[in-house]
Amino acid sequence: MRQMILIGFLQAQNCTNHPSSWRHPESRTDSWSPDFYRHIGRVLEAGKFHLGFFDDRLSMPDMYGRNHAHTVAHGIRCVKLDAVTVLTVMGMATERLGLGATYSTSYYEPFHVARVFATLDLMTGGRAAWNVVTSLNDGEAQNMGRDEVLDHDLRYDRADEFMEIVLGHWDSWEDGAIVQDKTSGIFASPEKVHRLDYEGRYYRSRGPFTVPRSAQGHPVIIQAGASGRGRRFGAQWGEVIFVAYPNVEIGRRDYAALKANVTRLGREPDHVRVTQLINAIAAPSKAEAEDKWAAIDKLPLEIDALSLLSEALNFDFARKGMDEPFSTDELAEMSGLQGIRDRVLQASGTKAPTIRDFITISGRGRVHNPIVGGPKEVADQLEEWFVAPACDGFVLSATHVPGAYEDFVRFVTPELQRRGLFRNDFTGTTLRENLGLPVPAIGAWRPAHALHQRP
Ligand SMILES: Cc1cc2nc3c(=O)[nH]c(=O)nc-3n(C[C@H](O)[C@H](O)[C@H](O)COP(=O)(O)O)c2cc1C
Questions:
Q1: Which of 139, 272, 330, 440 could form a disulfide with 59 if both were Cys (CB 3.0 to 4.6 A apart)?
Q2: Would you say residue 455 lies in a domain?
């Protein structure tokens, strides 16, 4: 029987992706301590989650009013730790949980990213995953020595080459390359360790790579592109895809389209797992969950939404009054997550929406459309999405930490297991084994993907 995948959406920061979460009475206040991450890792592992994954952004939100004062004052994601370093701590506290981190293709060298994640994969016994993002706002660019973020599609063109280099390096050491024969003095077979010699339009990298393959071959690739170009990129490279479909009906349609795109690219659709972003507020009963939700919904401030919208759209929302319509030129200037702008244009029914429309329709800064209920109600909704099928599993975002994960594991996981929708235990030691993904053969990605590779 097909069973669902569960992923914890984690942030190595002072709040979850909901800035108000740090004000929740039960939120821990030590999110920069190792024990905080060890505890979350253990909770997810006890709940048999496949993966805990950390998002990333390379700047604090300071587009609103072009100043960081409000961000720091209100704790709007102003602390942001390096995700891979934090993952290492979580990896040392767990044995089976998959460990994913986000790294940007726009601000690092591919050799560096390949080495960081290959090393993490070895140090965690084959449990690593890399969420590939291209970054989106000027704050990140300015922290990394550039003036502004690159154009949207160019970021993805560069990222294609980036992937060829990373995967190419991950293929450098054939299985069985290491001999370690102390008598003959041969450490490894030179004919089994290869140089990449990559010369692309945007990147060059020579090799040979310096990290041997791990128990799962190489880290699992995660992607979450939402635009047309982003979805194409995801279908080409992603093994786990994060989606945020607005409802089951659209989900069913887009899920089928995504799998069809994967097939068209010569890949096996079952080897690409699609996971839907959810917020769940779970309690022993529906009434108790609704009380919890009412308390959580009181926490957000308007400034949370204004700050996050400015950051996500790479546009200063302090330039406008709350009910002043945006001009066509201003809307065109929004260069970050254009999907948000497009959804607001569509749902507001006007070509000149206001900031208020953006806040209401996007739900940014608030817990948007949560699944609220006791074990039965939450499991019913997840089952509906899963059997549609509109996804292969879920990425659980937290209203507060660690409580939101603890509640899910305590109340929802047993009900999903009782229904046979979720496994009772880990099925292997590596992340690929647990996701049901095969160890990739050397070069398996090449025939369908090679874009610029020169021998
Ligand atoms: C669950 C989830 C997690 C994401 N995590 C990140 C992240 O950590 N960093 C980031 O810059 N973007 C993140 N994104 C945004 C996507 O990478 C992507 O940029 C966005 O969906 C817009 O699509 P586009 O790049 O095709 O325009 C995430 C999206 C989803 C649904």
A1: 139
A2: no
Whether 454 is covered by a domain: the verdict is: no
- Residue 448, pLDDT score: 54
What is the count of structural domains for the chain? Answer: 2
Pair 18, 113 in one domain: yes
Angle formed by the axes of helices 355-362 and 302-313, to 10°?
Answer: 90
Q: Are residues 289 and 306 in the same domain?
A: no
**pLDDT at residue 1 in the model:** 87
**Ligand 1 atom 16, closest CA:** 224
Sign of the Cα torsion 386, 390, 394, 398 reads negative
Q: In which domain, by residue range, is 144 found?
A: 5-299+368-449
Q: Report which DSSP code applies to 436.
A: T
- In ligand 1, the atom with minimum distance to the C-alpha of 234 is 26
In ligand 1, which atom is closest to the CA atom of 338? Answer: 27
Q: What is the pLDDT of residue 39?
A: 98
- How far does residue 154's CA lie from ligand 1's centre (Å)? 16
The answer on 320 and 229 residing in a single domain is no
Residues sharing a CB contact under 8 Å with residue 291, sequence separation 6 or more, in sequence order? 283
188 to 112, 114, 181, 212: CA distances (angstroms): 23, 21, 8, 11
User: Which residue ranges of the chain lie beneath pLDDT 70?
Assistant: 447-455
For ligand 1, which residues put their CB under 6 angstroms from it?
Answer: 9, 55-57, 102, 131, 133-136, 224-227, 230, 242, 244, 277, 337-339, 395
- What's the rounded Cα separation, in Å, for the pair 257 and 268? 14
88 and 99 co-located in one domain = yes
**pLDDT for residue 453:** 46
Task: Please report the atom of ligand 1 found closest to the CA of residue 104.
Answer: 11
Residues 309 and 331 occupy one common structural domain? yes
